[in-house]
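1st attempt posting a full record on here, be nice pls
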Amino acid sequence: MKYEVVIIGSGPAGYTAALYAARAGLSPLVIAGPEPGGQLTRTSEVENFPGYPEGVLGGQLMDDLRRQAERFGTKVLYDVVEKVELRPFPKKLWLSGGETVEADAVIIATGSSPRWLGLEAEKRLYGAGVSACAVCDGYFFRGKPVAVVGGGDSACEEAMYLSRLCSEVHMLVRRDQMRASRIMQERVRATPNIHIHWNTITVDILGEQKVEGARVRHVLTGEETILPVQGFFVAIGHVPNTEIFRNQVALDAAGYILTEPKSTRTNIEGVFAAGDVQDPIYRQAVTAAGTGCMAALEAERWLMEQKHRKATLGVS
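the predicted structure (as tokens):
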């Protein structure tokens, strides 16, 4: 199969790129990946995506984006890319289903995945009190006690954000010090309703249908206590889904795809990156969608340049 544009990933970035590419007449292919629709399909209500004044279920939002992209000619293939060769022209992608896809231009929108503690309850209660994004879900815990796991800048930022909404924020730090910058530590310590629990690990998250508490252990004494929290936020980092692109596109030290300033262009001609896979800072659905738009527009212009170059050289 040969396409002008292939988009790897089906989250907000991927489907927005597909929408713009399809409306430009490029008939893009979206390869949905291992989690069609991305992380939002595992969340409950989304209240901060423009155009939904009453909020929308995450799965419904992604279904709306998919149907909008398909309306203009996008094809969605429910398969997983296992191997890529991005430098040749055309570029080649091998799928787990056994097919090989060729593309003139590729947009990588594979997103990132939150690091988890590895507790069974994280999976059971994800979207029912367990979250990896305070900006996304903090509003649902207004006036309620919550816990934040982590000791880096991200954890401090999550705790600070939640402190403006929640009655109490219990910050669980597994060591006797934080990795966060000094200024972030000072801000956390100066916030009255943030309580730091040093040398503390989470043993379990309590509740069947929703979070009802967290069982924690002090690593020095072995003493276990139960924190009566209703929200549990894991802030120990994210992992960009870029493993198959190693040695293909340039990555930073954390594995995020490097793009040119104010652009989605990678170091490889005809390869663009959008969404959380190249954004370690914001990680929001709306910012992912914005870069998906950028990637499609840049891919369209690049393809036009290639056609003009061939026409000038008399190459068919």
